[in-house]
């Protein structure tokens, strides 16, 4: 079977890329090892995605935003950074921006469902589900993908969107920085007595990092990061004991908490591909950049990369040009590297500083927070970046 484009991976980046090419006349194959019913109705995974204004505009343009209900969307009006036992808070808000919120919080599984509904029935798009990829290869003539069920697919362009541990990336011979952090993240939805006022907090406490993401009503998404062994022990608690433990670890800032969904556990690792393109192939989403979740930019960067590549491909198709030329793929790589490398490096630096328990690091992070508080222009710039990136 021959397509113009083959996408491996039916997550948000792969779905968004396919949807962004609607109307181009290109034939697209999307390969996903999960069955079609799980793509159409993804299970709850506990992750809440902090969408920037730019990402909301993109999802609206792709027709996915219309498939979300009001109950799926929680406003994020302010973000606060806390450090250790100090009551000092560094706040990022919308002051001076003309906006009433930094962004929107939407469950990851709802975004995936909305994107699937947007591509459902899209002309020229073939969904190839329930089978994985056995091997891939590319040369100047095109790309060839052999599926686990024995089928062979050919295309002019191969796009990998198959996770931060991308097997396609590896088979293309593209190396990546892979940092396995030895820590895990536990997420669960909690109900609480206090009013979060639509404020997210990121608390770098001694020995743990705990975030609270404000959801509709008096509920939040609790995100706790500890060593993988500690997280596994906590995840094994019954809901009542886990709620009490989260209440204690958050210093009862929102009162008593009860677990209403979860927990879900994710081992933490960051990845950054050495290249985002190869002969007749490109990487998008986590296959290109796997961000640490602390700054909540992974999804936004993945969406940006997918639409950047789609724009270049659509322009080439409209001109009757080569949709997988080396020049096009180099332009994509340069553009996405410029967008992603600074925030990737800054995030890793932030995580390194605020999880380092040595005395010098504790002093440095206190000084960093207070310096930021004394520089309103810096806070405003970061707030605009959070909203628009």
Summed up, what is this model?
This protein has 389 residues and is an alpha+beta fold.
Molecular structure report:
With 389 residues, the chain is an alpha+beta fold. It is elongated and about 60 Å long. The strands form three sheets. Strands 1, 2, 8, 9, 10, 11, 17 and 18 form an eight-stranded mixed sheet that branches. It has helices spanning 12-20, 36-40, 53-61, 108-119, 167-171, 228-235, 239-249, 298-319, 326-354, 359-373, 376-388, and strands spanning 2-8, 28-32, 48-51, 74-76, 78-83, 89-92, 103-107, 125-129, 133-139, 142-147, 152-160, 176-192, 199-205, 208-215, 219-227, 257-273, 277-278, 281-283, 289-290. The protein contains eleven helices and 19 strands.
Topology, please?
Blueprint: E1 2-8, H1 12-20, E2 28-32, H2 36-40, E3 48-51, H3 53-61, E4 74-76, E5 78-83, E6 89-92, E7 103-107, H4 108-119, E8 125-129, E9 133-139, E10 142-147, E11 152-160, H5 167-171, E12 176-192, E13 199-205, E14 208-215, E15 219-227, H6 228-235, H7 239-249, E16 257-273, E17 277-278, E18 281-283, E19 289-290, H8 298-319, H9 326-354, H10 359-373, H11 376-388
Parallel strand pairs: 1-2, 1-11, 2-8, 5-13, 11-18
Antiparallel strand pairs: 3-7, 4-7, 5-6, 9-10, 10-11, 12-15, 12-16, 13-14, 14-15, 16-19, 17-18
